[in-house]
């Protein structure tokens, strides 16, 4: 235990409890950081851990009861890991200083512009769909399965499938009308 | 459908990769990871997730984490029942003005009711709606092989049909017509352990058309190893 030594040892009566909790949930924190931060995990894990433990110590220091310690640490780690992941992503994007769509499309600038133009056409056609069909089609094109649509939108299986099928048909019709050549 | 849509999916990935001003907030991710995010806010978050590559990737990680949480000693709440939409001002990080626009866009009012007897667009009331069969068993995690599928009877029904589906909506097994409110688990049906859905359709006495079958809501089951 090398973090927060000054803070925690100033309150010896709470220090032992804090250390016991940290030992118990060390693996949980590490797992959440790895899952959320992914390729940035090595870069951010120390910061995330430190912020989670500071928040935990503040709770303990105030002698506030933590009802579900595991849940508390789990959620605090998710929050901190998401923040850290975003900071790291932004930092890297600033360094690279190339707009993501151009990177995705490859090296050829003409192809990149063409792809961007087509993506804008697609977006315009999507915007013409009814709200629910648009939700279904966007989720489908983003690669989510019907079960995710059901779970998140509260739709029945059949409704979700119908919305995807009808929405995709509408989208193709709209793209054809705009002369889409994709 | 997936193969036909591959080109559009690639194109949509380009669109999703466009930088987004707002993202789902850290607090929402924490609640989603613990299964505590109310249904209405889950829908709002998922709508954004479907448009934003960064949040879509995070969603997949958080969803996987939620599955792993019990194994890490973290109790995860079951999904909350759907409730009326309510303000979620903290849903998206970013400027308050931008957030207000997003909330306004997300609060699409329900479509006005159509003429009497008409169905609202895409709302297939025959599927899982009022009047459909009510599945009784099996439900949830199973400790052993399921003995039978059982459901409550529906008036004016000639027969029933049961389907077992994967979470990816592939039909694993479909029964013949069943006369009664129970059918045994087929002896030869041994899908891999994991999550599945089943539902039961009531074939009305006045029609044999597939479009007139009244389906129950899907029931999740988990087959043991």
Task: Give an overview in words.
The complex is a heterodimer of chains A (182) and B (225). In chain A, 38% of the residues are buried. Chain A folds into two domains: 92 residues; 78 residues, Orthogonal Bundle (Arc Repressor Mutant, subunit A), CATH 1.10.10.10. Chain A is mostly helical and 182 residues long. Chain A has nine helices and no strands. Chain B has 225 residues and is α+β, with helices and mostly antiparallel strands. Chain B contains five helices and eleven strands. Chain B is globular and about 55 Å long. The interface between A and B is large, with 67 and 66 residues.
Globally, the shape of chain A reads elongated
Q: Mean pLDDT score of chain B, rounded?
A: 75
Helical content class of chain B? 25-40%
Radius of gyration over C-alpha positions of chain B, nearest whole angstrom: 21 Å
**Helix/strand order of chain B, N-terminal first:** HEHHHEHEEEEEEEEE
Number of helices of chain B: 5
Total number of beta strands of chain A? 0
Distance between the termini of chain B: 31 Å
Coarse morphology of chain B: globular
Distance between the termini of chain A: 58 Å
Q: Total domains of chain A, how many?
A: 2
Multimerization state = heterodimer
Percent helix range of chain A? over 70%
Uncertain stretches of 5 or more adjacent residues of chain A:
none
Number of helices of chain A: 9
Structural class of chain B: alpha+beta
Order of helices and strands of chain A: HHHHHHHHH
Task: Give me the secondary-structure category of chain A.
Answer: mainly alpha
Largest protein interface? Answer: A-B, 67 and 66 residues
Question: In angstroms, what is the radius of gyration of chain A?
Answer: 24 Å
Low-confidence stretches of chain B: 81-90, 95-130
């Amino acid at each position: 235990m090398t973090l927060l030594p000054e803070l925690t040892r100033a309150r010896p009566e709470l220090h032992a409890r804090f250390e016991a909790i940290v030992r118990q949930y060390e693996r949980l924190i590490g797992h959440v950081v790895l899952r959320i931060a992914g390729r940035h995990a090595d870069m951010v894990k120390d910061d995330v851990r430190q912020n989670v433990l500071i928040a935990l110590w503040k709770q303990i220091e105030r002698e506030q009861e933590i009802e579900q310690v595991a849940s508390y640490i789990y959620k605090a780690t998710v929050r901190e890991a998401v923040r850290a992941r975003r900071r790291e992503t932004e930092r890297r994007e600033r360094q690279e200083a190339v707009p993501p769509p151009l990177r995705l499309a490859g090296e050829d600038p003409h192809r990149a512009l063409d792809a961007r133009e087509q993506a804008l056409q697609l977006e315009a056609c999507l915007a013409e769909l009814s709200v629910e069909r648009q939700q279904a089609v966007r989720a489908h094109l983003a690669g989510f399965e019907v079960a995710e649509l059901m779970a998140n939108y509260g739709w029945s299986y059949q409704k979700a499938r119908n919305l995807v099928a009808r929405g995709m048909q509408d989208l193709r019709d709209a793209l054809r009308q705009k002369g889409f050549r994709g | 459908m997936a193969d036909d849509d591959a080109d559009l999916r690639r194109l949509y990935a380009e669109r999703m990769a466009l930088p987004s001003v707002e993202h789902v907030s850290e607090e929402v991710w924490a609640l989603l990871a613990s299964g505590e995010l109310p249904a209405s806010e889950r829908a709002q978050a998922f709508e954004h997730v479907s448009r934003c590559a960064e949040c879509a990737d995070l969603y997949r990680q958080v969803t996987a984490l939620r599955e792993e949480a019990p194994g890490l000693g973290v109790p995860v709440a079951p999904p909350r029942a759907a409730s009326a939409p309510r303000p979620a001002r903290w849903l998206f990080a970013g400027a308050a003005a931008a957030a207000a626009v997003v909330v306004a866009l997300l609060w699409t009012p329900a479509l006005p009711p159509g003429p009497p007897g008409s169905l609202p667009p895409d709302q297939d009331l025959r599927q899982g709606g009022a009047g459909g069969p009510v599945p009784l068993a099996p439900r949830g995690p199973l400790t052993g092989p399921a003995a039978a599928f059982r459901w409550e009877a529906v008036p004016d029904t000639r027969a029933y049909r049961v389907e077992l589906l994967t979470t990816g909506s592939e039909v694993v097994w479909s029964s013949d017509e069943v006369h009664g409110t129970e059918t045994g688990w087929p002896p030869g049906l041994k899908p891999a352990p994991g999550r599945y859905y089943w539902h039961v359709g009531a074939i009305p006495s006045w029609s044999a058309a597939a479009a007139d079958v009244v389906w129950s809501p899907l029931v999740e089951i988990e087959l043991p190893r």
